[in-house]
Amino acid sequence: MSELLYEGKAKKMFSTDDPNVLRVEYKNDATAFNGKKKAVFQGKGRLNNAICTKIFHVLQENNLPTHFIDKISETEQLVKAVSIVPIEVVIRNVVAGSLAKRFGLDEGVSLGRTIIEFYYKSDELGDPMINDDHALALKIATEEDLAEIRRQALKVNDVLQSLFSEAGILLVDFKLEFGKLKSNGALVLADEISPDSCRLWDKETHEKLDKDVFRRNIADLPETYEKLLSRLEAVK
Ligand code: UDP
């Protein structure tokens, strides 16, 4: 028996016969600006599933705990059931997007140190930025959760900077979500890591290989994601 549990902007989640396992289906929909801009791209689900699978395999090889189990079809994965910590964790290595706007900085300037930002996951509120005190006072997460999230986020950043660097790509910034396994409560990386949730630039030309091509009408999204996938697949 398989029941649709949740439909998001880019994915559907289904139950499986095992209560600790869910099936994720990647959709062809693309959205930006909190759902205000929308389009459907043939092949997007397949591309994000393939890119995300490659990334989760590399994270697992580096002993990072994730919810990922296996890719089971062109557009589907099996993942471990988690309860999501309602924080979007943004990790930044280079100035771009909202950081550039907020501080009046030029996009593309390397940050001397990595910045981690927390946003409270709430579509109605537009994901407001929060700090540790908000997270603790509003009981969004515990001190232990926040420490573990920071530790894992920095390690993910190291592993992914190396992976993308080998593909000739700069990891500018990206968003992570964490969850607690239904089976034993352990904190693990969840959700997806894909060009929908990362900024990835060619190291030399700064050509964009992520969803900004759609947000800013720069290039064709499936062609861009295909280019990214083939560059990642060339990394052993
Ligand atoms: N991001 C995301 N989901 C969000 C907000 C941001 O995946 O709801 C990712 C985004 O793709 C980028 C990074 O987080 O890689 C930083 O995004 P930023 O805060 O600069 O916001 P944006 O400019 O995308 O609105």
From TrEMBL:
Enzyme class: ligase
Molecular functions (GO terms): ATP binding; phosphoribosylaminoimidazolesuccinocarboxamide synthase activity
Pathway: Purine metabolism; IMP biosynthesis via de novo pathway; 5-amino-1-(5-phospho-D-ribosyl)imidazole-4-carboxamide from 5-amino-1-(5-phospho-D-ribosyl)imidazole-4-carboxylate: step 1/2
One Pfam family in the UniProt entry: SAICAR_synt
Signal peptide bounds: none
Catalysed reactions, as listed in the record: 5-amino-1-(5-phospho-D-ribosyl)imidazole-4-carboxylate + L-aspartate + ATP = (2S)-2-[5-amino-1-(5-phospho-beta-D-ribosyl)imidazole-4-carboxamido]succinate + ADP + phosphate + 2 H(+)
CDD domains per UniProt: SAICAR_synt_PurC
Keywords, ordered alphabetically: ATP-binding, Ligase, Nucleotide-binding, Purine biosynthesis
Domain SAICAR synthetase/ADE2 N-terminal residue range list: 4-231
EC number(s) per entry: 6.3.2.6
Gene Ontology annotations of biological process type: 'de novo' IMP biosynthetic process; cobalamin biosynthetic process
PANTHER family named in the record: MULTIFUNCTIONAL PROTEIN ADE2, SI:DKEY-6E2.2
NCBIfam families: purC
Family named by the database record: Belongs to the SAICAR synthetase family.
Annotated protein name in UniProt: Phosphoribosylaminoimidazole-succinocarboxamide synthase
Gene behind this protein: purC
